[in-house]
Amino acid sequence: MATITKVTPVSIATPAPDAEHSVSGLYAGEALQAGDACYIKSSDGKVYRSLAANDARNVVDGYVAGDVSSGDPCTLYYNIRFAYGSGLTPGSFVYLDDTTAGAINSATSTYGTVPVGRVIDAIRIDLVRSY
Question: Nearest CA to 73 among 55, 93, 54, 46?
Fold first, then answer.
């Protein structure tokens, strides 16, 4: 199992997503890094990093395109293409990581079994919600 290393900076490799592929008007509940898989926590409505675990963190509502400080406004994107890693295997799927919050992995884990993206080429991944 290999956590996919983020390219710095992570960038949206598609034209600016329209409102249909983004959720704005949200606030970060913790510090987020570009490319993090995130979920909206039901108890406070804020955005947190997702994790393949047996709890509410095991969902992806979208991904942040830039670093966001805790408490700052943020936008989640989904059904988009990100320049995300290097040396990726085209055609392979990616899953939530079970160790590092916000990360994606090239292999499944006990709770990370739903694909959240598909690798397009050595550096780009089409990312989706987990539902």
Answer: 46
Residue 67 burial (CB count, 10 A): 16
Paired with 32 in beta bridges are: 68
**pLDDT tens per residue across span 75-111:** 999 999 988 868 899 999 999 999 999 999 999 999 9
C-beta of residue 104 within 8 angstroms of C-beta of residue 63 = no
Domains of the chain, with CATH numbers? 11-127 (2.40.300)
9 neighbors 66 (Cβ within 8 angstroms): yes
Is this structure's pTM higher than 0.85? yes
Q: What is the 3-state secondary structure (H, E, C) of the chain?
A: CCECCCCCCCEECCCCCCHHHEEEEEEECCCECCCCEEEECCCCCCEEECCCCCCCCCCCCEECCCCECCCCEEEEECCEEEECCCCCCCCCEEEECCCCCCCEECCCCCCCCCCCEEECCCCEEEECCCC
